Amino acid sequence: MRLSHILAGAVAALAFAAPALAQETVAIVGGRVLTGTSVIEGGMVVIRDGKIVSVGTAAAPAGARVIDATGKVVAPGFVAVDSGLAGTEVGAVGGTNELRNSANTLSAAFDISYGLDPWSFTLPVARLGGITRAVVVPQHPGSSGGHVHEDETAGAGDGGYQTPGLFAGQAAVIDLGQDANILVKPRVAMVAPFGEAGADIAGGARGAQFVLFKETMAEVRLYARNKSAYERAGLRDLSLSRADLEALIPVADGTLPLIVSVHRASDIQQVLRLAREEGIKLILDGAEEGWLVAGEIASAGVPVLLNPISNLPADFEMRAARMENAAALNAAGVVIAIKGNEGSTHRAREARYNAGNAVSHGLPYGAAIAALTVNPARIFGMGGQFGQIAPGAAADVVVWSGDPLEPLSQPSAVFIDGVEQPLTSRALLLRDRYRQQTPMPPAYRN
């Protein structure tokens, strides 16, 4: 049987498996409920019309479909941050990768939401790891994983406008529900590399990038004040395209957060200084040496997206990387969100393993759960909408066989917006297809 037939069969099976209707009332009873901010033993979660109606210890409402979670754990769906979910199938195959952009006339305006694929094979695999939402970000030379090269990412190229560009583009929030409408909110943050990656883009030195960034913000503000003059060609030449200038206005006025990939403690300090000088709203991504300046990050009120198992000095930016980074940042009062591995795409489900490792190195258990659920929603301005089990929040709920931070625990039910999702993936379908099959398909008989 040809590979194309196998892929078509897998897609069809995943696309047409019928989930439960969102309109029904579901009561999940008897489990240990992790709300994202507290724990309820023997709790009950009621779901109706895509929302969480109530959570507590009362009896199930009449007429509800009851799911017995006795001996199990009920948790909010996890949120993958700094992720490539639905944006790529194989990072090294350009035709399947919508996360990177090499047009030097379009960098900051690159809107990743238009390239998202609801039928991506990566989504069911991530769902089986308890992930129900994701913050999808463009790739750039400082990205956390995957096959990323300077000549394949935003702003690279010769001639035209500012080249290479300082910005990778705009992130989007998606849900992982099995339907065609996964986009929750586009343009939730701008993305830019700093540190070594940013220095390379600017010409080789960190100081050059900071000066270029400040000049870019000045141009954006000049454009914002003089749009009519720009329209009639009455404004001096600017180094960015009109689309990029427009995209950067909310960054310059402090309403759209800037996700900054940065690792070294001294670079973190300089980025915090830049944010103060320019009035920029920051989200740090990486911050492997963040524990050295945890107090400064906390005082600035800047959240951090991190991988707590990044503990090797892979280069001179991470000389002080250590497994206690998450615990130290949390103890200082920094709001953290825990990432998966290698770009949080094919290994997004490993975020819960990373959280468990952080707990074993000093992060309180409740803080680890929050770093997978409620914190990401708050960081991206969507607190209360998802990432927690609370009345009014989206009914993204996972019933686990045991502790969700224990690798052997598996979901027995996954709800996204109140719709129960199938517990399958292309990998499982292929496993079942070829496990102990008799007779084998014709192409395999010879």
TrEMBL record:
<keyword id="KW-0732">Signal</keyword>
<dbReference type="InterPro" id="IPR032466">
    <property type="entry name" value="Metal_Hydrolase"/>
</dbReference>
<feature type="domain" description="Amidohydrolase-related">
    <location>
        <begin position="299"/>
        <end position="408"/>
    </location>
</feature>
<dbReference type="Pfam" id="PF01979">
    <property type="entry name" value="Amidohydro_1"/>
</dbReference>
<feature type="region of interest" description="Disordered">
    <location>
        <begin position="141"/>
        <end position="160"/>
    </location>
</feature>
<dbReference type="GO" id="GO:0016810">
    <property type="term" value="F:hydrolase activity, acting on carbon-nitrogen (but not peptide) bonds"/>
</dbReference>
<dbReference type="InterPro" id="IPR011059">
    <property type="entry name" value="Metal-dep_hydrolase_composite"/>
</dbReference>
<feature type="signal peptide">
    <location>
        <begin position="1"/>
        <end position="22"/>
    </location>
</feature>
<dbReference type="InterPro" id="IPR051781">
    <property type="entry name" value="Metallo-dep_Hydrolase"/>
</dbReference>
<protein>
    <submittedName>
        <fullName>Imidazolonepropionase</fullName>
    </submittedName>
</protein>
<dbReference type="InterPro" id="IPR006680">
    <property type="entry name" value="Amidohydro-rel"/>
</dbReference>
